Here is the input.
Amino acid sequence: MPTGKVLKSTGKWYTVMPEENRKDRVMCQIPGKFRLKGLKQTNPIAVGDVVDYTILQDGSGIIDDIRERTTKISRRATHGKKGEHILVSNVDQGFVVQAVEQPRYRTGFIDRFLVSAEAFDIRACIILNKADLGTEEQADDIASTIRIYEQLGYDIMLSSIYDPESVEALSTMMAHKTSVFIGPSGTGKTSLLNAIQPGLEHTVAEVSSFSNKGKHTTTFAELIPLDNGGFLADTPGIREFGLIHFEPSEIAGYFPEMRAVSRECKFYNCTHLHEPGCAVMEAFQDGLIAPSRYDSYISMYESLTDEARSAGSRKR
Ligand SMILES: Nc1nc2c(ncn2[C@@H]2O[C@H](COP(=O)(O)OP(=O)(O)OP(=O)(O)O)[C@@H](O)[C@H]2O)c(=O)[nH]1
Ligand SMILES: [Mg+2]
Ligand SMILES: [Zn+2]
Here is the structure.
């Protein structure tokens, strides 16, 4: 039975790349049993999945089995649907793509992504794209943002589709690895993909039609085989990275700068929000934790407790 990688899913059809031929594509469908199996997920088969399939007489395929995922990046399902939505599976590294301007980067988005990447055990990198749009007055702000993440051990880089060196640096980081771009609409994910892999010419928004609200240009996640031996998944823009499967008490453990100091808190179940003898709040006051990071922690903690509360009241 042939094995392949799911590159794209458009509802009914899955585009599968056979393991032995990166140039070939087989259009596959899934039998109903997968829909049942994937009850907790809005998508039973995700981009990046490795599947076994059978070729039918008309040349299309039927997916028979799915290999265990080594990693996955999921976020909360949107549009009022329950459960998780797997953005991509079997990835080595996730790039959170933000823009210097249009739309201006938000550290809250970056931090939610980093927490998820820590939890999913995926290497995380941060891209600040559209560096060419940076103004003099922003320079300090950008430099201090870069410093915050570098000190925490994350890779963070400025890029621009008009700066070939930055594109080359990204491409080098992706060689022989599976990577994914995640970020708000309009930050330039597809543009960077097109720059990394010339000849693709995937649709990007026209500069004139692009508003800061973000018009979604990419509508399906797609995994692209790169000439450098890697794979890169382009995904549709998302406004917020919805956290999944977290207890509020777990969050601090996914903030590297809070993880170590929180052991010194007076109370073992310290929330680091108001308790006396809290080592995290002390570190924050001493300037060892960046205000933007502590803000992100509070915001994530509160959104998860709100959620737990409303889930509890639904049950009653
Ligand atoms: N100045 C500048 N503009 C850029 C850069 N990268 C992308 N753009 C522009 O930003 C707009 C949006 O780019 P896209 O690549 O479509 O953005 P996206 O992140 O794929 O958006 P969605 O598919 O909606 O999630 C386009 O008009 C691009 O030309 C850059 O480095 N500098
Ligand atoms: Mg796009
Ligand atoms: Zn504490």
Residues 207-213 have pLDDT under 50 and may be disordered. The CA atoms of residues 35 and 44 lie 6 Å apart. The chain has three domains: 3-66, 72-234, 248-315.
